[in-house]
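Below is how a single chain appears once it has passed through the pipeline. First comes the sequence as given, then the structure the pipeline wrote out for it. We keep one example in the README because the format questions we get most often are answered faster by looking than by reading.
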Amino acid sequence: MRYSLGFARTECACEACSVSCRFVPGFLVPDDLANLRDPSMSLFDWAREHLLASPGAIVVRQGEVFRIRTLVPARQSDGLACHWLADGKCAVHADAPFGCAFVDSHMDEREGRYRSSAALLAVIRAWEYEARDPGCEKGLYARVWTDLQSVRRFAPGPEASRRAMMDSIGSLYPITQPRPAKGD
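Resulting structure:
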């Protein structure tokens, strides 16, 4: 069983769970860089091929509204679907980014938000490490995002992707439904 940030990975790959893959691929946390990366390539070359710099989630902390800049999977030609999604299946399912592997459409909203908040906090910490000690290992996530920005590898903001999801399926979030029985 895979764990990240104290959470057990969800294992569902049903059609409802893949809705987000078509519109709002899950964001990476710092540990995902090591899990996903091809060790035969430099991290920055690999990231330029497989990731995008997202403006990230809009959050409020102590009354201040700001974005948490995140790394997300590259997109297919439609500009929305995850580039690792092929024939409805994830090519990196075993090592999928935190936002995919640890949050699914069967979770209640409270649990999903709790997990997402913990992941966003890990991303904030990476940005803070880089600001305090440029070049440190814990700030690598921020440096990858900055490199992608420098070569104009951008993802749409999650709000734009969710609008596209709303236009297509009539919901901003995949509808929570019971988990399918094993083998379904």
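The chain has a mean pLDDT of 88.

See the next section for the split statistics.
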